Amino acid sequence: MGITVVCLLLLVCSVSTEHSNTGTDVETTAQQISYQQPCLQDVHAALKELTASLAEQKVEMRLLQRENEGNASTFLPSAGQVAFSASLLSDGEATIGPFNGHTALVFKNVVTNIGSAYDPNTGVFTAAVRGVYHFEWHIGVDSSNTAAVLVKNTNHIFTAYEHQTAGYGASSQSASLLLEAGDTVCVHQWTGTKIHDNQNHHSTFSGHLLFTL
């Protein structure tokens, strides 16, 4: 819009100049000269206004660019995103236990391990960042007693238990825990119990980060 105004003003000034060159009347020439002075002033004022407008738009574009960069970073995958899920067996069928003491369960069949916080070789989850995490564990049993406890570092949190006199049964538990970076979480099989799993993956251990603190 500013550029259009400048162009129109320049056109008017050009026409005025042509008339002054062809006119022979001194009074007319004087009038043309007096007209050109405010015309040039208008051009100068329009250019000044246009320059200020362009500078303002440049500042606004920089602010919008910074805002867009900030919004884009919000949707990028974060290093704090953590989620895992695994079952005891990848295939086949087996009954684990009984043991003479609490024994860490190693859920080897990993289907999800975003952030690689879960170790399928030890069955231990290690928190990478401080935050609240949610865990779930499910255990199957066939005609026996079963129990599995969630362990944070060395502390027993919640226990899933099932007494099945005949046939197949299962038990489940869950917990949300505040963890510091470096804290560990795993599932221990209770002393003297059995846990059953097969190709249907009844016995599982899962967890994910809810939010950082």
Topology of helices and strands:
Elements (H helix, E strand, L loop, with lengths): L1 H21 L3 H49 L8 E5 L6 E3 L6 E2 L4 E6 L3 E2 L4 E3 L4 E12 L2 E8 L2 E9 L4 E12 L4 E6 L5 E3 L6 E9 L1
Helix pairs in contact: 1-2
Keywords: Coiled coil, Secreted, Signal
Subcellular location: Secreted
Organism: Monopterus albus
Q: Helix and strand succession?
A: HHEEEEEEEEEEEEE
Structural class: alpha+beta
> What fraction strand?
35-45%
Integer count of domains:
2
Give the distance, in angstroms, between the N- and C-terminal Cα atoms.
Answer: 51 Å
Low-confidence segments, given as residue ranges, are 5-23, 72-77
**CATH architecture verdict of the largest domain:** Sandwich
SS summary, helix count: 2
Q: What is the radius of gyration?
A: 39 Å
By CATH reckoning, the class of the largest domain would read Mainly Beta
